[in-house]
């Protein structure tokens, strides 16, 4: 069994499901598409245009995130997970929509490989921050004052544009002593739309380690499940 297959066990008929972005989320959406073909009824809220396009191709019904809508759960990936289940996300560039959809759900389930588990957030040395283009230079200056080393994300030599029409500043940084405090400081900078710090948001993290899936829950001890 994979993390995607285990996540599918959490989906009940008629569920409203937030659909994340990135490699792990793509695998989940593909698995969900097979269940939908087999008769499972769900509606998905995508966190990126790429995920929306994939879900549409697979026949997964989609709905916009409407006022007062509460999702049953959101399934997404992460770039770093620490022992408290706090996260860094955004290497794929969809961090703002991912955070909105995660916040709209009763439960956030994160799917990762064991290589994404870190002892301290920031261990991989990058924190994505989404900024409005007009304020990008100002945001870079303020981020440097916080000890970050921001670089505008480029793809094929061109500035990467998010689905929201914004830029991503990939901030080089040392391991983070207080993720919640850093998140507040960055969000206080005018022009910052969102950060890749997801503090206190994940309820469950499913970790693929070979043929074993570990389930870590914010309120319980780590569990392991053999999937031979």
Summary, kept brief:
The protein is 26% helix and 29% strand. It has 228 residues and is α/β, with parallel strands linked by helices. The protein starts with a helix and ends with a strand.
Count of individual beta strands: 16
Stretches where pLDDT is under 50 for at least 5 consecutive residues are 221-228
- CATH class category of the largest domain: Alpha Beta
- Major sheet: 7 strands, mixed
Strand order of the largest sheet: 2-1-3-6-14-15-16
Secondary-structure-based class equals: alpha/beta
| Total number of distinct structural domains | 2
- Strand percentage lies at 25-35%
CATH architecture of the largest domain: 3-Layer(aba) Sandwich
Measure the end-to-end span: 8 Å
Mean pLDDT over the residues: 95
Radius of gyration: 17 Å
Order of helices and strands: HEHEHEEEHEEHEEEEHEEEEE
Q: How would you describe this structure to a colleague?
A:
With 228 residues, the chain is α/β, with parallel strands linked by helices. It has two domains: 141 residues, Rossmann fold; 71 residues, 2-Layer Sandwich (Alpha-Beta Plaits), CATH 3.30.70. Helices cover 26% and strands 29% of the residues. It has six helices and 16 strands. The strands form four sheets. The chain has a seven-stranded mixed β-sheet, sandwiched between helices. Helix 2 runs parallel beside helix 3. The C terminus is likely disordered.
């Amino acid at each position: 069994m994979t993390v995607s297959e285990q996540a599918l066990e959490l989906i009940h008929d008629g569920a409203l499901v937030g659909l994340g972005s990135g490699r792990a989320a793509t695998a989940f959406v593909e698995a969900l598409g097979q269940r939908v073909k087999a008769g499972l009824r769900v509606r998905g809220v995508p966190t990126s245009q790429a995920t929306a396009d994939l879900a549409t191709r697979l026949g997964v019904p989609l709905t916009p995130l409407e006022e007062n809508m509460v999702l049953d759960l959101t399934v997404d990936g992460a770039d770093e997970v620490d022992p408290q289940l706090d996260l860094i996300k955004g290497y794929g560039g969809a961090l703002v929509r991912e955070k909105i959809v995660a916040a709209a759900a009763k439960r956030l389930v994160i799917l990762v490989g064991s290589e994404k588990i870190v002892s301290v957030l920031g261990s991989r040395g990058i924190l994505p921050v989404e900024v409005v283009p007009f304020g990008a230079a100002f945001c870079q200056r303020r981020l440097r004052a916080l000890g970050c080393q921001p670089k505008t994300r480029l793809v094929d030599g061109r500035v990467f544009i998010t689905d929201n029409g914004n830029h991503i500043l990939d901030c080089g940084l040392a391991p983070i002593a207080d993720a919640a405090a850093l998140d507040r400081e960055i969000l206080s900078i005018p022009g910052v739309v969102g950060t890749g710090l997801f503090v206190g948001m994940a309820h469950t993290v499913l970790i693929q380690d070979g043929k074993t899936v570990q389930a870590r829950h914010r309120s319980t001890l780590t569990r392991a499940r053999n999937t031979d």
